[in-house]
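[scheduler] slot 2 assigned
[scheduler] job type: sequence-to-structure, two independent chains
[scheduler] chain ordering preserved from manifest
[runner] begin chain α
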Amino acid sequence: MNDLKQMIIGVGACCFLLFLMGCGGMRKPAKQSQALPGIFPDYTDVTIPSNIAPLNFMIEGAEHIQARFLVAEKELLAVYGDEVIDIPEDDWQHLLQQTVEKKMQVEVAVWDEKHPDGIGYRPFNISVAKDSIDPWIAYRLIEPGYEAWQFMGIYQRELGSFCEREIVSNKTTTSACINCHHFDRRSAKRMMFHARGENGGTIILDHGQLKKVDPKKMGPQKGAVYPAWHPEGRYIAFSSNTTNQTFFGQGRQPLEVYDRASDLILYDTKENQVTADNRFLNEERMETFPAWSPDGKWLYFCSAPAKKLPDERKEMHYSILRVAFDSQTGLLGEQVDTLYNARMEGGSASFPRISPDGRYLLFTLADYGTFPIWHNEADLKMIDLTTGKPVDVDAWNAKDQTDSYHAWSANGRWAMIASRRLDGRYTRVYFGYLDANGKAHKPFLLPQKDPRSNTLRLKSYNIPDFVDGRVEMPQEVVELFRCPDKLIQ
């Protein structure tokens, strides 16, 4: 009798489970549409690496949403939810392994107030490239305003998961302004950042050891701002900028940031000294945004004739130059080349970045000025250094919205792009694929566990960079700011 009772209970439980699955599981929509689904983020027809976190997405207002992932008409994964497609990480990684160098087809169906019986949309493709992406990225999180700040920090995110960790923040540095982080050859073991304010300085992490230096007290006694670590690890090139801003009461551009002076300096981490070349210390020209060629033989930078600012700000047009460098002597050579001539080609260039194979020069181009993040017209441009000809990367740009800071992955197949294309105010991270033929593919937004966090997180991702592993910042970093002379070299 007890066995029969337990059997009845078991059958009832199974029937109830089947009922629930019928109500909330995979369903068949009553209608079909030839339109693409209005998913957020827009992951339709993007190319992704084989080691990226799940591309979770949503359709606002959906009461039930489901997605089927197929390859060659064979279903490999099916996921459903109330409003969000939340893909299990293990299932997603297994799916990626089966679709490398293939296109997965995604079929999305939605049940909502307008379509109570469901509507299926035209399938879209996601291409999975064989080229992987670096395991981590690092960025500063800050409110999108230049005039004030309160809480900020440098954070790291694992790209194969949704893990985000703090590297350092001003919660532990007496509210210092933390900025301009940079890594030695993308190494998590060796990085630097600036901390402005009381007891601040340039902080260098070197394989678990910390030190604080003050470039203003060395050599030409100029402050260090935008950094570029030499590929051999000994030198760091800096621009020394005297930065100001002008605020506007009307128009789409709320402010203009500009330099009243900017020069180039070189910090020797081995000898702990700062040197400079007099050619790049004069008041007639402004030099900024240094970057190295992968072989370390050339120092790239932006340069423009000095103007009367802010009155002549719209006449500030920066070109991209490079000067030879000898890492044995630490000296800049005589030869100076112009790679992008703003006077002849128009606009104003910033953030020169050379691909790891040395072939491509990627940079931001705005109408004028040196702070493109506040310019809606700013776009990415690229030059093939082997031919001197431009390369079409329009696929990476958003119309009438800022596409600004960028970084290359270690294999040179992925460009990380800081863009304000979602709302015109907050800078978020996108990844664009560059295939072996030099073709740029549609970029995709940094995946989040909950897609809504892309818009609910009221912070800008600032200066995103690739990192080869997880940064372990020693707890002693707090002492660098509490004690004026602590670890000053």
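[runner] end chain α
[runner] begin chain β
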Amino acid sequence: MLPLSGLRVADFTQALSGPYCTMQLADLGADVVKVERPGHGDDSRTWGPPFVGDTAAYFLSVNRNKRSVVLDLKTDDGVAAALALAARSDVVVQNWLPGTAERLGLGYAAVSERAADIVYCAISGYGPEIALPGYDQVVQGTSGWMSLTGAPDGPPTKIGVPVGDVATGMFATQAIVAALVRRERTGAGAHLEVAMQDSLVAMLVYHAGAFLTTGESPHRNGNEHSTVAPYGTFEVADGYVNLAVGNDRQWQRLCAELGRTELATDARFATNPARSVNRAVLYATLDSLLRTRPAAEVLACALAAGVPAGRISTVAESVSDSHLVREVTHPRLGALRSVGSPWRFDGAAPGVTRPPPDLGQHTQEVVRELELPR
């Protein structure tokens, strides 16, 4: 039995941050009922190509293990059914603009009046006081992430993965699970608020710490680490590798494996602070040393020295080699594959029990099961 088996989630989210959160809850065993609007459904159903049939791969990647119900929240009947669904659930998740849920009559006050122990999570771009949409690239910019990403002499650059959406979904999942644990102990529900801006600022970690300590804003370092050296990407004869030298012992062993023991005792490179200060000449020295050697040789030297190292893989290479790929059969689209959640419980990874749903596929089923007003 998965940890959240027997719990129901009323899912009023679309796009990515909310659906990523509710997919994690579904992977953990919860019955997630995804509420979508008539005709169009979740915006991400059309965010393509690529498509599988008429459904975007984007939507399919974050909506497995859920049921889809169509309700028209522009009508009194639709709102009444949505409110009944929320009240008969353990968790409500929504990522509307702040204020929208209250205008619809689906805010925390309205739901908790009918279910005092509800765990209600509102996901937004910038928090409840700012009614602006939060899209990943915009929030990567406003949070400071883009100022840290890219070449030092290049423009600010976004992370290739929508880290704002994914991180917010993960933080929301953490808060929901924590609230469910508290409810189990005390019987109390919870009103949770998670913002994309706050999530990315929280993840600045040592970069924020550096600013708060010195008053100076960190800058872009490309693929180099700001405080540890050598720690970054190096070109080799047949591609690129990452080397992450975390301490002086690793550096000494790496120099020995590479046949350049004199570098370990060079005063410019003997300690991490010295290597960080002299990183320009350090990286130039390593570039000339590694550029003509094949990746296999460099990685063998690094691993023999106990230095974390690895090739730069493409998405195709990474996913093709991953044990996280799950397959499920969709009744209309056929076999679908997706990357599953990374947990293992008692040695077993959660599977896929439901394919991503067609729009409104489970409306009648859920209406009958929960006796929702129509």
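[runner] end chain β
[qc] chain β: The chain is about 40% helix and 15% strand.
[scheduler] slot 2 released
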